[in-house]
Design goal:
Helices cover 25% and strands 34% of the residues. It has helices at residues 3-14, 18-24, 31-38, 46-56, 70-77, 110-115; strands at residues 79-90, 95-96, 102-109, 123-129, 142-146, 155-161, 164-174, 177-181, 190-193, 197-207.
């Protein structure tokens, strides 16, 4: 398989668009699409190839770069790059969902993810906006969201409600009714039906300044 076909397959497996990867490289959104379908440019620039290989978790040689030594290949396999998305989930009044744009990545130990029962391909990181989840989550924290389809369990989730992205503790009330709860008691619960909101994913980890 040549480098172009492999890049297309890797992007599809990761669930990220070629346009998003192009923007991550600070390129025109059609840059990688043209590279794959039209052969322009003829090959990726070294820095672009390095960034893509690091983000996708593969050796640069898989994307047309030189062969790497066995140590480098082994080191690459030990880590998973989780995309940081340029969107925020509101822990306050509510934030409109912006266009999903990958601008960076967190690197996690593959072993640690396995110990937590997590699949790197189903994870993304977004920032918290607002104060309704304090002290658990503060504005500016970034949360790791597990977007796998799985049976619902009460817990902290990122949800979409009326086109707004929220991070809330979601509790089932039975009969298809749910409560969207804030940690900050200044914010009242939001009672909704199952048809009124969408669970984007479960919050499984957070990062933030001390």
């Amino acid at each position: 398989m040549d480098a172009r076909a492999r890049l297309a397959d890797l992007a599809k497996e990761r669930g990220v668009s070629l346009a998003a990867l192009s923007r991550m490289l600070s390129r025109n959104p059609t840059y990688l699409q043209q590279y794959i379908t039209k052969g322009s440019p003829r090959k990726l620039e070294e820095e672009d190839r390095r960034i893509l290989a690091e983000f996708l978790g593969v050796a640069e040689s898989k994307l047309g770069g030189p062969q790497e030594n066995s140590y480098a290949r082994r080191e690459q396999k030990d880590w998973v790059e989780v995309p940081r998305l340029d969107i925020g989930a509101s822990a306050g009044p509510g934030a409109l969902g912006a266009e999903e744009k990958v601008f960076d990545a967190f690197r996690f130990s593959r072993r640690w993810l396995a110990e937590q029962g997590l699949d790197g391909k189903s994870l993304s990181a977004i920032r918290v906006v607002g104060d309704s989840m304090e002290p658990l989550l503060r504005e500016g924290d970034e949360v790791l969201v597990d977007c796998r389809q799985q049976p619902f369990r009460d817990g902290v989730h990122v949800v979409r409600l009326d086109e707004l992205l929220l991070v809330k503790r979601v509790a089932s009330k039975g009969g298809g009714r749910y409560s969207l709860l804030s940690q900050n008691l200044a914010y009242p619960p939001i009672d909704v039906g199952a048809e009124d909101f969408e669970v984007i994913g479960r919050v499984v980890w957070k990062s933030g300044r001390v």
